[in-house]
Specification:
Organism: Prauserella isguenensis
Bound molecules: ligand NA7
CATH architecture of the largest domain: 3-Layer(bba) Sandwich
Distance between the termini: 31 Å
Radius of gyration: 23 Å
Largest sheet: 8 strands, mixed
InterPro entries: FAD-binding_Monooxygenases, FAD/NAD-bd_sf
Strand content: 15-25%
Helix content: 25-40%
CATH superfamily of the largest domain: FAD/NAD(P)-binding domain
Structural class: alpha/beta
Shape: globular
GO molecular function, one term: oxidoreductase activity, acting on paired donors, with incorporation or reduction of molecular oxygen, NAD(P)H as one donor, and incorporation of one atom of oxygen
Number of strands: 20
CATH class of the largest domain: Alpha Beta
Keywords: FAD, Flavoprotein, Monooxygenase, NADP, Oxidoreductase
Protein name: Cation diffusion facilitator CzcD-associated flavoprotein CzcO
CATH topology of the largest domain: FAD/NAD(P)-binding domain
Length: 538
Amino acid sequence: MSATRKLPTELDAVIVGAGFSGLYQLYKLRNLGMRVKVVEAGSDIGGTWYWNRYPGARCDVESMHYSYSFDPELEQEWEWTEKYPSQPEILSYIHHVADRHDLRKDVVLDTKVTAAHYDEDSALWTVRTESGDEVGARYCIMAVGCLSVPKKPEVPGLERFRGDWYHTCDWPESGVDFTGKRVAVIGTGSSGIQAIPIIAKQATELTVFQRTPNFSLPTFNGPIDQGMVADIKSRYREIREESRQSGFGVAIEPPTRSALEVDPDERHHNYEERWRRGNLTGVLQAYTDLLADEEANETAAEFVRGKIREIVDDPETAEKLCPKTYAFGTKRPCLDTGYYETFNSDHVQLVDLKETPLVEITGSGVRTSDREYEVDSLVLATGFDAMTGALLNIDVRGRGGQTLREKWQDGPALYLGLNPAGFPNLFTITGPGSPSVLSNMIVSIEQHVEWITDLVDHMRSSELRTVEATETAEKEWTDHVREVGDMTLYPKTDSWYMGANVPGKPRLLMAYLGGVGPYWQKCQEVAANDYEGFALSA
Ligand code: NA7
């Protein structure tokens, strides 16, 4: 035992990660009377919302829908202040939940898990940490988050840069003041788009380096509407259930018509009304075929481009900001507050990296194929090695010592996005092959946690020792995930959903597009049929 050991040597379950998923999993397994610890690399709980502290960080799901549903009193008591929750508010919500349910005592902070090895004789997992501690456990649950391994730009020179640099997902807790600074931001995904308007307010000069423009819609964020709050609170149970049965984990009225069967004026009017709702699903869910048919999609894409052209004064800049190379929605659309308007300020300039690619970071700035831009501070909003990055960063070994990295060399394979065959008693929360990042994450997290908890409970009451997906069930599910994805426009786009943002990463749609409701039904059926597709043994 190491002198500073933070973990016991034996547990029933180890959970890796103390975000929304790990904390809820802890709560559920502890309620079964199990010995459980959560191991967390960060210095505090919160996961995504602990790390992503960049200015303007905010969830793109509305506050009233981005919260746990398992504690009905909590959902009545908690008061969100804005339509969309900011990172500090979500973090204080997570802290409140942890305190309310006394979760912290079973969270081991500042401890990075480096390995998890399965031993076939004992049917136990040995989980190892960076400090050398080891713990044996029957179950190993990966609650590592889908967007938790930062990606830097694939150009040399960052170590030479003499100014300050920051990645949006590893932002100093004390914040950063860019007043009086010349700032460069590389990356225009959600993080860049949320941070840029705020950085622009402080910086004397802001240069935005854009590789691919994104579709972004306004949040129309503001103080939360108390009438809406009262209405939702009066029927929260019903709304939560509707969310669980929905396509993306937020209860909305599903579209019924094709975009192509509607008169262009009526269609425009509909998009306009939905634009004003200020959410992700409004325009995207206006018609049945926007994510499946290019011509239909183009009607929505052109509507959004029209908005960009209206907002941005300089026509050349507006054109650069207009996405034209992929279908609307197939890269995660962003929600912003004043993003496009920012480019109307004289001290903000946009550099199109498709025209003049990034070459290197220099001692004093950023060099493209055209010229060097001298800056004092550099912000990397360059995204993540999504969905598989955090799982593969851990040396996970299953039966026969097979590594997860070997198993997934052509892309992730799991049954139901929950368990890879050959890795008994190991579960992934919102793993690849489940709706995950293509849904309201909290709804999907709760589904997975509750399903895993029921399974573990069943194992214990039936005195079973191991559960693992069969190769056949895993293959059938993985094929199904691909087939459903292939019915949509998603696979045509280079996005992090496809692994396309990380050079060398296998290209395939990692999330399941069959819908949160149908997916949940499938998981329930599997459980009801004696965990069909899983091998359970004593
Ligand atoms: P994203 O959405 O992956 O955005 C990253 C951005 O950084 C995107 O514009 C990338 O361009 C750009 N990028 C990445 N690598 C480079 C290099 N090498 N050179 C230039 N530009 C680069 O990450 P976010 O953190 O913004 O958002 C992630 C999710 O969090 C978001 O989807 C929401 O679900 C919440 P690209 O598009 O790859 O050409």
